[in-house]
Amino acid sequence: MGPRLTIEEKRKRMMEIFHDTMEPYLLKELEKIGPKQKGIVSQTVKDVVQSLVDDNMVRCEKIGTSNYFWSFPSESALKRKTRLQDLEKELALMEAKQSELDSAIEQALLGREQTEEREGLVEELGDVEALWNKQQAELRQFEECDPVRMNERKKQTMVARDAANRWTDNIFIIQGWIRDKFNMDPAEFNKHFGIPADFDNL
Q1: C-beta separation of 38 from 48 below 8 A
Q2: Could you list the residue range(s) of the whole structural domain that residue 14 is in?
Q3: Can you tell me the distance from the alpha carbon of 73 to that of 156, in angstroms, rounded to the nearest whole number?
Q4: Confidence (pTM)
Q5: Predicted confidence (pLDDT) at residue 1 exceeds the cutoff of 60
Q6: Which stretches does DSSP call E strand in the chain?
Q7: Which of 105, 125, 154 is the last residue of a domain?
Q8: What is the maximal distance between C-alpha atoms in the chain?
Q9: Residues 19-56 pLDDT 10s
């Protein structure tokens, strides 16, 4: 028994079967030819052939109830040539993109060379940013006394007071209606509904 073949060796030998004979085969035929001529274990022939079909190196067509497999040298060479052309186009695009990026990097670096003046300006910028952050923190401490915010709060307070007085008036209206309808004393009404004695408009 010879050395075990790698999957690539099996694929190469299987392609030799197709290219040497230039004939279509049934899978059963390949499972007989593979072990005899190329030393490919018959149980692995199906997987090898399928991997070649998946990579478009071998064609498979169903004729009637049977699947026929074939690959001609000219067809394989044409596919390789087409693949090579595609890869060359992709390489050219990538090289052009890299050239663009290199150019963009060079442009971005113009005027940003590390000089003493630049280092000084960067340090000064850091000091200014630190000062600005400190002043912003101090400003936040005085937000409560901001005149604009105080006026806004006054407006909101007046709106809330008016709303509270409307509800108070509504309660007085209900209180008066119940007093007239059921002859109930206002103090009794207040006691019944948990309304304090000093309840009044704000």
Answers
A1: no
A2: 7-71
A3: 87
A4: 0.38
A5: no
A6: 25-26, 59-63, 66-70
A7: 105
A8: 118
A9: 888 889 999 999 998 888 888 888 989 999 999 888 88
